[in-house]
Design brief:
The protein is about 30% helix and about 25% strand. The chain is α/β, with parallel strands linked by helices. The chain has five domains: about 80 residues, PriA, 3(prime) DNA-binding domain (GIY-YIG endonuclease, 3-Layer(aba) Sandwich); about 60 residues; about 180 residues, 3-Layer(aba) Sandwich (Rossmann fold), CATH 3.40.50.300; about 180 residues, Rossmann fold; about 90 residues, Alpha-Beta Plaits, CATH 3.30.70. α15 packs parallel to α16. It is globular, with a radius of gyration of 30 Å. The chain binds a DNA duplex (12 and 12 nucleotides) through β1, β2 and β3.
DNA sequence: AGCACGCCGACT
DNA sequence: GTCGGCGTGCTC
């Protein structure tokens, strides 16, 4: 006999909680983690709600799992995320529920120390152990044996004799507590005012969202550290979200310099026991500060007081598989639900965040100057129409002259070209055959080091042929256009005695080696760095005084409505790499269109004007942030199936007033994880219930068949 | 996500 | 005959 029914949400792609009978004698509360039968197996789930009832026709809850229960706020947040992203509720739960995979108890750590009289029979091995333990300190059993050069058996023997005694050691803390007053940084007047404004928001109800806008080198990090310190002082937790790549040793060291210890970090690389303990520590409130990638937003914080979203404009915050979400936007909502202050930090805020600040939804705190009176780099456009550059060369005389000057003074130069590989296009001289990807119809990019042609869209790789695959001519292939590898070749010819390095995401040797090389660059072991957008993010190069942008026009011509914004942000960050040390830096920006608004804003340093103009252009086009752009992502193993399905969906739906179906995107299909994928664009006015409409649409669409899947991606926008 | 069920091709 | 491949659908 039972008196209650539990609606249990299971972390699978299910949209409804399933009802189970609660056995008498099993005390359950909403939010508890339970084990329930599902089909033939048992799975873990969370009690989403409890209600009275006999539940005679339901299966019964098998039992409670010893895991931190999910707070009402956490459940509200997950419900909201599922609603907003149009994902099944169970999928949202899956992001927030991390259960121990092994049931095995944590290995007990046993310490030993000297306790009593020497053993009756002394041996050389025993003698060494006793001598070591003579200092009275507690050691791990295994360590003591190792240090003494004996086997564990010898130590065990001494324990049996009573010479040594065992001591239960407390589990190592997952993370040490940061000390908010460990070392106050010296802040400038501006910085102190900004820091006080941010820290003050923690005491407001409801806690507001603040845009912290500061040029590169203005000390944003130090400023938001003060808000973190305030959270810790109040006994609350702070979460610092960052793009995965930015979770560097450099950042952790800066944190440690301010707080005495490194913060707990959470990202996809944190696994196993460590992950479990962190999860538990965060749920208990023991872990005070977490620095993490976007997934850290879904942890069950006990007392969240502050969320910092560092580099809030970063596209890495957008998750594009499974549940589609933008961590920055979800952070704003989580903050509101937990009454935690939110700080969005960036040197180049996204348009939507700017608009929210301009409309008063977010506060706006500015750090207009570099810290320590350092100058912003002088930026100059190099008009490529007026420069004499030989065929097959890409560095203008102006840039070369500037490089000579800087290198001559022992300084570093960064050359930026956002194009991996050797050449973006390969042609046959004899028959004009263009090497294209068999899946995506994108050009294949030559990678000369790897001797292969690579599709940057889907990852397709083929060996660079000796003879043309179309006409058979030998040695007839020509490489058109530059990639970073090709620039490296040119640089080696121009500056043979200088040490150059190419940095791009296909850097050989993985993250570890990349990290080492970045440190080597900072230490001055290279003179010329040639890099893709990888170099724009998060690394300080104190000896870098000159930045050359080789082709500022890349990205301006794409059909993406955010192209201008993205290019502006990228170029502003890259040029900002110049002159972070003592000496002011300068940047030369090679372009074919020096009058383009993006280039003009960059050179004049008038970001405000650019954003105003860009906002106006978007308003006229009816694009976000003034409406919403959603896309249905249709994917299937076969290209035709995906395409046909998207077309069918576009026809079936009859949009309500305020909604425009822009139709299947003309953009080339992308092949991701063996599935063809493309978008069906929907535009709406702000007032329209986009979620309701899209759900209804999906329900009316032809039954999704034949391994076709549909996901929905709501673009970041103003939704508060 | 599993896991069963079912419907087709090649084997002890 | 039946073993097993995968495609489809259900799980309170």
């Amino acid at each position: 006999m039972t008196s209650h029914i539990a609606d249990v949400l299971i972390p699978l792609a299910l949209d409804t909680a399933y009802s189970y009978a609660v056995p008498d004698g099993l005390p359950l509360r909403e939010g508890d983690v339970v084990q329930v039968p599902l089909g033939t197996r048992e799975v873990a789930g969370v009690v989403w709600s409890l209600r009275p009832g006999s539940g005679a026709n339901f299966k019964s809850v098998a039992g409670r799992i010893e895991a931190p229960p999910l707070s009402p706020q956490m459940r509200r947040f997950l419900d909201w995320v599922a609603w907003y992203t149009l994902a099944p509720k169970g999928s949202a739960l899956a992001m927030g529920l991390k259960l121990a995979d092994g049931e095995r108890p944590e290995a007990v750590r046993v310490g030993v120390r000297l306790a009593g009289a020497p053993p009756r029979r002394m041996t050389p091995a025993r003698q060494r152990v006793v001598a070591l333990a003579g200092d009275g300190l507690v050691r791990l059993k295994r360590e003591l044996a190792q240090e003494a050069g004996v086997s564990i058996g010898v130590v065990d023997g001494l324990i049996d004799e009573g010479t040594l005694e065992t001591v239960a050691l407390l589990a190592e803390p997952v993370a040490e507590s940061p000390d908010p007053d460990f070392s106050r940084n010296h802040l400038s007047e501006d910085q102190r005012a900004a820091a006080e404004a941010l820290a003050g928001t923690l005491s407001e109800t409801p806690a507001p969202v603040t845009l912290l806008e500061g040029v590169t080198g203005s000390g944003k990090t130090e400023v938001y550290f003060e808000a973190v310190a305030e959270a810790v002082r109040q006994g609350r937790q702070a979460l610092i979200l960052m793009p995965e790549i930015a979770l560097t040793a450099q950042f952790l060291d800066r944190f440690a310099a301010r707080f005495g210890v490194k913060p707990a970090t959470w990202h996809s690389g944190v696994t196993g026991r460590k992950r479990e303990r962190l999860y538990a520590g965060i749920a208990s409130g023991e872990v005070k500060v977490v620095a993490g990638a976007r997934s850290a937003l879904f942890l069950p914080y006990a007392r969240l007081g502050l969320i910092v979203v560092d580099e809030e404009h970063e596209t890495a915050y957008k998750q594009e598989d499974g549940v589609h979400y933008h961590a920055r936007d979800m952070a704003v909502v989580r903050g509101r639900i937990e009454n935690a202050a939110v700080v969005l930090a960036s040197a180049t805020p996204s348009i939507e965040t700017r608009v929210n600040a301009a409309r008063g939804r977010y506060r706006h705190v500015r750090l207009p100057e570099r810290f320590g009176g350092r100058q912003l780099p002088r930026i100059r456009a190099v008009d490529l129409r007026r420069e004499q550059i030989p065929r097959g060369r890409w560095l203008s005389p102006s840039l070369i002259a500037a490089m000579e000057e800087s290198l001559g003074q022992g300084e570093q130069v960064l050359l930026f070209l956002n194009r991996r590989g050797y050449a973006p296009l390969t042609l046959c001289r004899a028959c004009a055959h263009r090497y294209e990807c068999p899946n995506c119809s994108a050009w294949l990019v030559e990678h000369r080091f790897r001797r292969s042609l690579v599709c940057h869209h889907c990852g397709h790789v083929e060996r660079t042929p000796q003879a043309c695959i179309a006409c058979g001519s030998v040695d007839s292939l020509v490489s058109c256009g530059p990639g970073v590898e090709r620039i490296a070749e040119e640089v080696a010819e121009l500056f043979p005695e200088k040490r150059g390095i190419v940095l791009s995401s296909d850097f050989p040797g993985g993250t570890e080696r990349l990290r080492r090389e970045l440190a080597a660059i900072a230490a001055g072991e290279f003179d010329i760095v040639i890099g893709t957008q990888l170099v724009a993010k998060g690394h300080n190069f104190p000896l870098m005084t000159l930045v050359g942008v080789l082709d500022a026009d890349i990205g301006l011509t794409s059909g993406d409505p955010r192209a201008a914004e993205r290019t502006f942000q990228l170029l502003q960050q890259v040029t900002g790499r110049a002159g972070r040390g003592e000496k002011p830096g300068r940047a030369l920006v090679q372009t074919w269109q020096p009058d383009h608004p993006v280039i003009a804003a960059l050179v004049s340093g008038d970001a405000e004007r650019f954003y105003r103009e860009e906002t106006r252009v978007r308003e006229m086009a009816g694009l976000p942030p003034f409406g919403r752009l959603a896309s249905l992502i249709v994917s299937a193993a076969e290209r035709e199936a995906a395409e046909a399905h998207a077309r069918a969906m576009a026809k079936v739906a009859e949009p309500p007033p305020g909604v425009t179906v822009l139709g299947p995107a003309e953009a080339p299909l992308a092949l991701i994880r063996g599935r063809y994928r493309f978008r069906l664009l929907v535009k709406t006015e702000r007032e329209v219930d986009l979620q309701g409409y899209l759900r209804a649409w999906m329900a009316r669409c032809p039954k999704v068949r034949g391994n076709t899947r549909v996901a929905i991606d709501v673009d970041p926008q103003s939704f508060l």
